[in-house]
Amino acid sequence: MLDTIYPSVIPGPPRPSRILIPQGFSRHHGQERHAVPGGGALLVQVMQGDRLTVVSDEGAQPAELVAATQGGRIDAALLGQAANSSAEGLKAMLASAEPTLLRLRKGLEQRKIDLARAGGLRLFGGDSPAGARAELTALDDGWLVVAAPGLPMTPEAQDTVTALTVLIQRAKPRMIGNFDLPDPLADPILDLRVKSATAESYFVKAGDYIQILDVDGRQCTDFQCFDARKLDKGIQHALDVTTSRTFMGHAYSMPGLHSKYYDQDWVPLVEVVQDTVGRHDAFAMACASKYYDDIGYPGHVNCSDNFNGALAKHGIDPRPGWMAVNLFFNTNIDSHGVLISDEPWSRPGDYVLFRALTDIVCVNSACPDDTSPANGWYLSDIHVRAYSGAEKFSRSIAYRPTPDSEPKMTKETAFHDAIAAKTRHHVEYKGYWLPQVYSANGVLEEYWACRQAAVVLDLSPLRKFEVTGPDAEALMQWVLTRDMKKLSQGQVVYSAMCYDHGGMIDDGTAFRLGRDQFRWIGGDDYGGVWIREQAQKLGMRALVRGSTDQLHNLAVQGPNSRQIMKRMIWTAPHQPAIEELGWFRFTVGRIGGPSGAPVVVSRTGYTGELGFEIFCHPKDGNAVYDAVWANGEDLGLRPMGLAALDMVRIEAGLIFAGYDFSDQTDPFEAGIGFTVPLKGKTDDFIGREALIRRKEQPSRKFVGLEIDANVDVGHGDCLHIGRARIGEVTSSVRSPLLGKNIALARVDVAHAAVGTALEVGKLDGQQKRLPAVIVPLSHYDPKKSRPQS
User: Fold this and answer.
1) I need a labelling partner for 655 at 20 to 30 A (CA). Which of 137, 168, 363, 549 fits?
2) Helices within 504-583 (DSSP H only)
């Protein structure tokens, strides 16, 4: 008898998929996370038995806590503690005119909490490490104020104020769905729940606001609205996404210049004021019966039928399928022209805030699609709130520095009011509104002013980090490619920051303010996070604290910039005067005289011209901007926006993150190999071994291109020799000075020699080609004689 042979079997039940998700999606039942920004405060209700954890995210940041009973009586015993502070920092914050604390002031008044009699708790000292924690328990129901106090940081000091995190584990979670509904943005005039797989309609007056919230995260909602006055006349013109996409020039409308949605008669119905997600759909219909019928689910509940039921009471005729703005629906069009979808980006509590531009009848669904990833494979609710038009909400888009971060809404820089008086054309950049172009001048006038006279531009979104402590030099020596031991006090150096594999995290400048004091200025929040992680990993005694919100900066660039700065900057005898300031050096001074606003001035820039940067606390922003303008207007000073800045930096061969380099690009491939002194720097640093290997065995080279055509060339355009693709364009501009199209590009080393002829591929890369030739990287002033002059 033959033995029976059975196939090999993996024992046990199947294993679930391992999926790693950000912290916002992995909260335990009843756990809340609240961010308290540096210089800010939070008011939160606590209940008996709630467990509280206060975390000093970056270290050396005190926390002030004030607990009050439900009746408003201040009593630290609510937390089982005795008061050890009079909460002077919190009182000083509330006494200021800081607008971000307005809601806190109102909340304290409504709850009859009088801080004049405050006895609070002060946590964490000046030497507390990053991640320091304090744990407390609420012994009764009441209210808790948590503040991250601090004084305005002078530009040469490093006593920045940083964020706290408050974690609350609720003893009795007040749950709606799986997650708590976030607090309203103001007093709501409508609070409407759209239950899972249903739709609800509602009326909103012109000028009022509509907040549409994803309660549990990753749940789509279709939104549609009608001009109520047209409905009164029997005209049923719904919001038309095709008209809106065409007018706005965007796949879907976003806060800022391209924010409106229209009907087919070009009547604007709503504008987007705030958006915490940034990924929606305005191409696909709301799901309809035919969709489910065709994939084998006949009779499946769908958004279009739900719309018909919800809109019937308004006399709106039913339709088999509805056009809609599909909020939180994550779609894309792939390289084959296929409309694809995936799980939404939205997290619990994310929202879009509209403003009604006329009286409108609205409808929202909670999409019932459980056959695809469109709702994250889990159906949940949508919530709608409306607020009075008398409320004030700034235009903003959520920005998350890291995937685990709480969202930060777009801010205005210290110079925004002065800039807004000159242009309304702003774009969101790294969490701030910056001018794209000044309409009264135009991009070419701004460009020529930089090359021939002087310009002033706002670079406040640059990320600043204060690195201090006995091990600060050793830490910076380890995380940067440049030799920081050779950096003198008062000196600045441009450096790369790399991962172990040699790919770039960021580029930026390091300032040495003292023996154990450094300042890193880069383009990305993660640079500072990463430096802090390395310090913690090695157990180094060094603090890495963000100061971006404490240190805003203007650049004054161009041949006349030194004369402007000499007129306006006073320096003490022990500091270099402006005329003595060398290239990549900085000085500490004041505006106009010894009693003026304090500033740090560095001889640095991003234009390829002689230039300076002025750093100040935001409270002094108007004084600094006014001084620049007053001292430069007769010297041809013009304001410059991002569009003109891009032109001059490309001409000068200066690189930009996300275009000219990424974490797949090493400094040699980004054209900044000079920042990696492999022979001169004897200490080890992160990525050194990989960079040695990549330098000895290069595969790509960063080059300049001159293009023999006036056709626009863009980031990502392919480069060919014959049929073979040998590289891609990273940045390009039509140079006014050179009178031709130029570009920065990365090409295979086999075809990287100056003078090599190649072609830029347009359309599909084959049907249209533009002749080009490789030239040295810096098209303008390759020896950098102008900024050094």
Assistant:
1) 549
2) 525-538, 561-568
Token digits for 630? 């007053």
d(CA 35, CA 354): 25
Residue 27 banded pLDDT, cuts 50, 70, 90? very low
Within 8 A by CB and 6+ apart from 294, the residues are: none
Average pLDDT, integer, range 71-79: 92
Q: Which helix (H) or strand (E) holds 232?
A: helix 228-232
Helix axes 561-568, 621-632, angle to 10 degrees: 120
Mean pLDDT, all residues of the chain: 94
**What is the Cα–Cα distance from 386 to 405, expressed in whole angstroms?**
27
CB neighbour list of residue 1: distance below 8 Å, 6 or more residues apart: none
Q: Are 456 and 637 in contact (CB under 8 A)?
A: yes
Question: Cα(392)–Cα(560) distance, rounded to whole angstroms?
Answer: 41
Q: What tens digit of pLDDT does each residue of 166-200 get?
A: 999 989 876 545 566 788 999 999 999 999 999 99
CA diameter of the chain: 106
Q: What's the rounded Cα separation, in Å, for the pair 775 and 760?
A: 15
- Residue 504 to residue 8: CA distance in whole angstroms: 46
Q: What Rg value do the Cα atoms of the chain yield, rounded?
A: 29
HSE-CB for 557 with a 13 A CA cutoff: 29
Task: Copy the structure tokens of residue 475.
Answer: 């830490």
Both tokens assigned to 8: 């090999």
Contact criterion met (CB below 8 Å) for 225 and 234: no
Nearest one of 79, 82, 83 to 49, comparing CA atoms: 79
Whole-angstrom CA distances from 596 to 418, 568, 589, 602 are: 19, 10, 9, 18
* Buried-exposed string 285-313: b where 16+ CB fall within 10 A, e elsewhere: bbbbbebbeeeeeeebbbbbbbbbebbee
Confidence of residue 24 (pLDDT cuts 50, 70, 90): low
Token reading at 313: 């009471």
CA pair distance 388, 741, nearest whole angstrom: 51
Q: How far apart are CA 378 and CA 781, in angstroms?
A: 58
Residue 179 is classified by DSSP as B
For tokens 């467990």, name the residue: 51
CA distance 480 to 526: 14
Query: Taking Cα atoms as reference points, which of 34, 24, 27, 41 lies closest to residue 91?
Result: 41
Q: Read off φ and ψ for residue 195, nearest 5 degrees.
A: -65, 155
- Tokens 């930026």 found at: 508
CA angle 233, 236, 239 (to 5 degrees): 130
Cβ atoms of 707 and 771 closer than 8 Å: yes
Q: Which residues of 520-533 are buried (b: 16+ CB within 10 A; e: fewer)?
A: bbbbbbbbbbbbbe
Question: What is the spatial distance between Cα 405 and Cα 421, in angstroms, rounded to a whole number?
Answer: 33
Residue among 127, 133, 132 at smallest CA distance from 53: 133
| Predicted local confidence at residue 28, as pLDDT | 52
Conformation bin of residue 102: beta by default, left when phi > 0, alpha when psi is -120 to 50 = alpha
Do residues 628 and 558 make contact, with C-beta atoms less than 8 angstroms apart? no
- Tell me the pLDDT band of 101, cut-offs 50, 70 and 90: confident
> Three-state DSSP class for 66?
strand
* DSSP strands (E only) in 421-524: 426-429, 432-435, 454-458, 463-468, 492-498, 504-514, 517-522
d(CA 399, CA 636): 36
Of residues 352, 336, 224, 213, the one with CA closest to residue 285: 224
Three-state DSSP class for 762?
strand
d(CA 240, CA 220): 19
Strand partners, 731: 744
Residues in the chain: 789
Identify the CA nearest to 590 among candidates 568, 574, 622: 568
